[in-house]
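Below sits the subject:
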Amino acid sequence: MPTFTATVQTHIKASPAQAFGFIAPIDPTTLFTGYGPLPAVTGTRDQTGPWDAPGQTRTVAMSDGSSVQEGLKHYRPAQYFAYTVSGFTGALRWLATGADGAWWFDPEANGTQTTVRWRHAFHARSKWAAPVLWLLASVLWRGYMRKALRLAKARIEMAPRTPAAALSA
C-alpha cells in the first residue's frame, strides 16, 4: 500500500541541544492544539518512561475521544528522534494502518541556531483509502505540523538563555 509523507522545517535561534531538549520530551498538549477538523491532543497515559529511549510507548488521547499508540524507535540527543504511530481509534483507522515520524536537529551558525525538520509518513490501509489519506497528509496534516512547529519555535526562542537553563536543555 502507498505511503504519504508530509515534511515541514524551520530555523530556530537556539542550539540543537536546546531545541531537542525542548521538543523531544514536551507535553504534546502544548504543541498539538488541533487544526481545522484535526483534533487536539488532550493528554497521554500509560507512558513507559520519560520519552528518552527507544522502546518506550504511550497512548495519546485526542479531543474527539480517539487515541493512538506511539512508540519511540530512535533517540539521539541533540540530533534526531523517531517514533511510530499505530492503533488509531478515530476516523483515521479507516484510512491508515500506521505512521512513522522523525525529527532532525541540524546545527547552523556555529551551533547557535538549528534547522528543525519533521517528517510524518502515513501508511494507507487500502488503495480505496489512499486518495483521502493523500489529501489528509498533503493538506491538513502538513498544516497541523506547521502550526505545531511554529508554536515550538516561538516557545524555544522566548525561553531564557541562562547558563543553568542551557545545561538542563
In short: Residues 31 and 152 are 7 Å apart (CA to CA). The longest strand covers residues 96-108.
